[in-house]
C-alpha cells in the first residue's frame, strides 16, 4: 500500500474545488429552505398594457408557466395578476392579488394592493384585518396605516368595521385614537369611541385623555365636557354635581372635569379611608421634600352666573415648614386663568375640620372655572419638607340670590 | 279670589255648552277634557305629573303625550279644544288658539312642534324638549345633572346631555326648528338656535339636498379611503417587498 502525501502544490490545486463544492452546497441548501423567487420582478401594469397583443400573450404564457412551477410564490401570482389585468380580466386579476395578499402578510406593497381592492369592494372587515396585520409587522409605518384606518372609519360601514377591530384590543388602539385626533379628526375618533362603548368595550383613561385634552386645548369646552360626561357610567352621572366626586369615592382619573393631580417629585397621593371605622374615602397627599409651590390638585368647573358656597373638610399632619393651603377658584376664559375667589387657609389640625367660603360667578368673562388647591406664595423658597394633608367632602352649592 | 272663580266657572259653562269645566283660579286658562293612554303628563314645578280629567292647566304649562296616548285640552275662554296626538307636547297659551276664528271650535290635530301661535311660551324659554330616547338623557339647570323628561322648558344657560344610545330632540321656539342632540353629546342652550326652520320645496321634500350632499360625501370618502391605500402603495419602498421581521418601535 502506497501512501500518498498531499504536497502543497496539490493542495493549492484542490482549493478551488473545495470552494466550488461549498458554494454549490450552500446554494442547494438555500434553495431547499427558501422558495424560489420569480425569474424577474413583476412588470408594471402600464408597461404590460403597452405591449402588442402577441407579445402580451407570450408574457401571459410565461407568467402561467412561472405560476405552475411554483404556485406558492407570491411574486409569480402578482405577475400573473398584472398580465391578466392587462388582458382585460380585472376580476380574475383582483382575485389573484387577494390570494397574493394572503400569501405575503408582511409584504407592504402586495398588502396595499389587496387593501385597495378590499376597500373598493367595501369589504371593510377584511380591509381592517389586512391593516391590523400590516401595523403589527411594520410598526415603524403605523402612522401611515392608521391614517388609512381613519379614512375607512370616515364611512359608516367602515366605522363599524374599525370599531369591531379596535374592540379586539389590538396593541395599536390607543395610537389610532391619538393619531386620528392629531390629524384633525377628533369627532371621528369620538364616534369610534362611542361605537366601542356601545359594544361594551371599556376605554382606557389614556384614550379618553387624548380626546378631552385635545378639545380643552382647542378651547372647545362643551365638546370636552360632553366627551368627559360620555365616559361616566349611569351611576357616576348621577354624582355629577357642581363639583365632581367631592367625597373622593372614585379613582383620580385626571381628565380635567374630575380631580386632576399634576405629579411632582416628592409628592404622592392616595385614596385612604377617612378613619379606621369607615369605608368613606378621603384624598391624602404626602409631602417629602417637595421643592415647588403646591398647585397640583385641580378640577374644571362649569358654574353659571350666581352666588356659591364652597365647603369641605381638611386635616393636616406635621406639615413642615408651616404652609397655608387654600382653594382658589379661577375664571377660565380664552385659555387664560384669572383668580375669581379663594378660601381662607385650610385649617391644619390632626382632626377633621370643616372650612367654607362663598363666591360669586360674574355674568361675563367667567364661563368656566378651575378649582385648584394651592399653597400660598411666600417670600422664602418654595419647599414642603414633610407632612400630610387630607381632604374630604368638597362641595359647591348654589346659593339663592338675595333680592335687592 | 272666590268671585273670580265663580265668574270663570260660569263663563266656561256658557261657552262650552255641554261640557262642565272645573272651578278655575285666575291663572288657569284650560283644562283636560279627555285623555287616553298612560303616558300623558303635565310639567308642574319642574316635575312631570300624570294628568287627570278636569285637571286645570295654567298658561305656560306644558302637556306631553307618550306613545299610544292623546290628550284633549279645552280652553276655558271659548271652549276651544286642542287634541294633542301621541308623542307630542304643547305649551298652553293664556288665550285660546281658536279666538281668532270662532267658527273653528272643533277638535284640532296638532302637528309637532307646536307653532308659536298655538304654543305661547314664557318669554325666556328658548327651547323645549319634544322627545327623548334611550336611558341617559340628562339636564343641568344649575345644580348638577338631573333626569330630563319630555316637555321640559330650557333657558339660556341650561345644558342637556344625551348619553350612550340616547338622543334628545329640542324644539327652538324663536327659530321654529328642531335640533337633535345625538348620543354622547352635550349641548348648552344658547341663542341663536343651532338649527334653522326647514325649507319645504314644491314637492314637499325638505331634505333631498342634504341627502344628495351626504351621498356625495360618502362617495368622496370611499374614493379617499381607496386613495389612502394607494398612497401606502406608492410610498412603499422596494425593500419592503421582501419579507422581513418587524422593526420594533
For the termini of chain B, the CA-CA separation is 83 Å
Largest sheet of chain B: 5 strands, mixed
Largest interface: A-B, 53 and 44 residues
Query: How would you write the strand order of the largest sheet of chain A?
Result: 1-4-9-6-7
Give the integer mean of the pLDDT values of chain A: 86
Number of helical elements of chain A: 14
Order of secondary-structure elements of chain A: HHHHHHHHHHHHHHEEEEEEEEEE
Explain what you see.
The complex is a heterodimer of chains A (404) and B (249). With 404 residues, chain A is α+β, with helices and mostly antiparallel strands. Chain A is built from 14 helices and ten strands. Chain A has helices at residues 8-33, 45-49, 53-69, 74-86, 90-103, 108-120, 124-137, 142-153, 156-167, 173-182, 186-198, 205-217, 221-230, 234-238; strands spanning 260-261, 267-273, 281-290, 297-301, 306-320, 325-333, 336-342, 353-361, 368-375, 384-399. In chain A, helix 10 (173-182) runs antiparallel to helix 11 (186-198). Chain A starts with 7 loop residues before the first helix and ends in a 5-residue tail after the last strand. Chain B is of the alpha+beta class. Chain B has helices spanning 2-16, 208-235, and strands at residues 28-36, 40-44, 47-50, 56-58, 62-65, 70-75, 81-84, 89-91, 108-109, 125-133, 137-140, 145-147, 153-155, 159-162, 167-172, 177-181, 185-188. In chain B, the strands form four sheets. In chain B, strands 4-1-6-7-9 form a five-stranded mixed beta sheet, with no helix packed on it. In chain B, a hairpin with a 4-residue loop joins strand 15 (167-172) and strand 16. Chain B is globular, with a radius of gyration of 26 Å. The N and C termini of chain B lie far apart (83 Å). At the A-B interface, helix 6, helix 7, helix 8, helix 11 and helix 13 of A face strand 17 and helix 2 of B.
Amino acid at each position: 500500500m502506497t501512501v500518498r502525501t498531499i504536497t502543497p502544490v496539490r493542495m493549492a490545486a484542490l482549493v478551488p474545488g473545495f470552494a466550488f463544492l461549498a458554494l454549490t452546497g450552500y446554494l442547494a441548501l438555500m434553495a431547499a429552505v427558501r422558495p424560489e423567487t420569480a425569474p424577474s420582478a413583476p412588470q408594471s401594469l402600464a408597461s404590460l398594457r403597452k405591449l402588442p397583443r402577441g407579445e402580451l400573450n407570450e408574457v401571459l404564457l410565461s407568467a402561467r408557466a412561472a405560476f405552475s412551477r411554483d404556485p406558492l410564490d407570491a411574486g409569480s401570482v402578482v405577475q400573473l395578476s398584472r398580465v391578466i389585468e392587462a388582458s382585460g380580466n380585472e376580476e380574475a386579476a383582483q382575485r389573484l392579488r387577494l390570494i397574493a395578499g394572503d400569501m405575503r402578510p408582511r409584504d407592504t406593497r402586495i398588502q396595499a394592493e389587496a387593501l385597495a381592492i378590499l376597500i373598493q369592494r367595501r369589504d371593510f372587515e377584511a380591509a381592517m384585518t389586512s391593516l391590523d396585520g400590516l401595523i403589527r409587522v411594520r410598526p415603524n409605518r403605523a402612522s401611515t396605516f392608521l391614517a388609512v384606518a381613519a379614512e375607512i372609519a370616515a364611512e359608516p360601514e367602515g366605522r363599524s368595521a374599525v370599531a369591531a377591530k379596535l374592540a379586539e384590543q389590538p396593541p395599536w388602539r390607543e395610537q389610532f385614537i391619538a393619531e386620528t385626533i392629531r390629524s384633525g379628526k377628533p369627532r371621528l375618533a369620538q364616534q369610534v369611541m362611542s361605537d366601542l362603548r356601545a359594544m361594551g368595550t371599556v376605554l382606557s383613561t389614556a384614550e379618553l385623555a387624548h380626546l378631552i385634552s385635545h378639545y380643552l386645548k382647542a378651547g372647545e369646552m362643551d365638546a370636552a365636557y360632553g366627551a368627559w360626561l360620555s365616559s361616566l357610567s349611569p351611576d357616576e352621572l348621577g354624582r355629577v354635581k357642581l363639583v365632581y366626586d367631592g367625597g373622593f369615592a372614585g379613582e383620580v382619573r385626571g381628565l380635567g372635569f374630575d380631580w386632576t393631580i399634576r405629579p411632582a417629585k416628592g409628592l404622592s397621593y392616595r385614596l385612604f379611608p377617612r378613619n379606621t371605622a369607615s369605608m368613606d374615602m378621603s384624598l391624602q397627599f404626602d409631602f417629602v421634600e417637595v421643592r415647588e409651590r403646591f398647585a397640583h390638585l385641580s378640577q374644571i368647573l362649569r358654574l353659571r352666573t350666581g352666588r356659591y358656597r364652597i365647603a369641605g373638610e381638611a386635616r393636616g399632619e406635621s406639615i413642615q415648614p408651616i404652609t397655608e393651603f387654600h382653594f382658589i377658584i379661577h375664571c377660565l376664559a380664552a385659555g387664560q386663568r384669572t383668580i375669581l375667589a379663594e378660601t381662607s387657609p385650610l385649617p391644619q389640625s390632626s382632626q377633621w375640620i370643616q372650612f367654607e367660603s362663598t363666591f360669586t360667578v360674574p355674568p361675563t368673562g367667567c364661563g368656566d372655572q378651575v378649582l385648584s388647591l394651592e399653597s400660598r406664595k411666600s417670600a422664602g423658597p418654595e419647599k414642603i419638607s414633610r407632612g400630610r394633608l387630607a381632604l374630604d367632602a368638597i362641595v359647591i352649592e348654589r346659593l339663592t340670590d338675595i333680592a335687592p | 279670589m272666590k268671585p273670580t272663580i265663580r265668574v270663570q266657572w260660569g263663563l266656561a259653562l256658557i261657552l262650552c255648552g255641554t261640557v262642565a269645566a272645573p272651578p278655575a283660579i285666575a291663572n288657569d286658562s284650560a283644562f283636560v277634557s279627555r285623555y287616553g293612554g298612560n303616558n300623558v303628563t303635565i310639567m308642574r314645578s319642574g316635575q312631570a305629573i300624570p294628568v287627570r280629567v278636569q285637571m286645570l292647566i295654567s298658561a305656560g304649562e306644558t302637556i306631553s303625550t307618550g306613545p299610544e296616548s292623546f290628550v284633549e285640552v279645552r280652553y276655558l275662554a271659548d271652549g276651544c279644544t286642542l287634541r294633542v296626538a301621541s308623542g307630542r307636547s304643547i305649551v298652553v297659551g293664556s288665550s285660546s288658539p281658536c279666538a281668532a276664528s270662532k267658527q273653528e271650535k272643533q277638535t284640532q290635530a296638532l302637528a309637532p312642534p307646536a307653532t308659536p301661535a298655538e304654543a305661547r311660551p314664557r318669554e325666556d324659554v328658548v327651547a323645549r324638549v319634544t322627545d327623548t330616547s334611550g336611558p341617559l338623557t340628562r339636564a343641568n339647570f344649575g345644580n348638577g345633572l338631573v333626569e330630563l323628561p319630555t316637555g321640559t322648558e330650557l333657558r339660556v344657560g341650561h345644558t342637556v346631555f344625551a348619553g350612550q344610545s340616547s338622543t334628545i330632540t329640542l324644539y327652538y321656539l324663536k327659530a321654529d326648528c328642531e335640533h337633535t342632540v345625538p348620543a354622547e353629546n352635550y349641548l348648552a342652550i344658547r341663542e341663536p338656535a343651532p338649527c334653522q326652520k326647514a325649507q319645504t320645496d314644491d314637492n314637499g321634500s325638505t331634505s333631498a339636498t342634504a341627502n344628495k350632499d351626504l351621498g356625495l360625501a360618502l362617495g368622496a370618502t370611499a374614493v379617499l379611503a381607496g386613495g389612502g391605500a394607494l398612497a401606502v402603495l406608492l410610498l412603499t419602498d422596494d425593500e419592503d417587498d421582501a419579507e422581513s421581521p418587524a422593526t420594533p418601535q
